[in-house]
Amino acid sequence: xxxxxxxxxxxxxxxxxxxxxxxxxxxxxxxxxxxxxxxxxxxxxxxxxxxxxxxxxxxxxxxxxxxxxxxxxxxxxxxxxxxxxxxxxxxxxxxxxxxxxxxxxxxxxxxxxxxxxxxxxxxxxxxxxxxxxxxxxxxxxxxxxxxxxxxxxxxxxxxxxxxxxxxxxxxxxxxxxxxxxxxxxxxxxxxxxxxxxxxxxxxxxxxxxxxxxxxxxxxxxxxxxxxxxxxxxxxxxxx
Length: 239
What we know:
Layout: H1 2-19, H2 31-38, H3 42-54, E1 58-61, E2 65-68, H4 76-85, H5 88-109, H6 112-127, H7 131-148, H8 152-165, H9 185-197, H10 201-238
């Protein structure tokens, strides 16, 4: 019975998040209000929140509430400021400089727990049927690499970069409900994982660099498509 109620609460919470256009770091209603709105008990709601927090979809802080996205490590106003002055290509450049070196160090310092986490994250990426869930697990995969470096300063640098990267300021529109079956990210994640597992620092850095290059190319194509649609709408209005 408890398992059924927990699943019901989780399903309702997922639908609630999907049907509301929350931005990164938006605060959810208080637990009592949200439980009443979803028609579930507060205990089953907490269990559901535990699950989606583990997926990186929300973060919670005692006394403050529950927020959309992964846990922020710097002041939210600073994230918003950095997002407002940073172009998508600048974020891509920063990732291309930082993340391959994180992968290189992770290949030297990772342990069996790190590798299990990476494999688990990529499996969940592969099975995701919508973009929100896919991006949550993709984010967790990259965070797990930073954690595997065992360097607290580098982890904080990554978290700051990631908070800006996930800002809605530079998100592009998706043309599908979820990742297509031939979406290349999971295979690229596999290549990074295998290099880490083999303790191959150069291979890990190269695999991460290739992955980020692919991400950048998709971003450029998506941006060009959106620009083309905007120009077409503008011409149609003038006509």
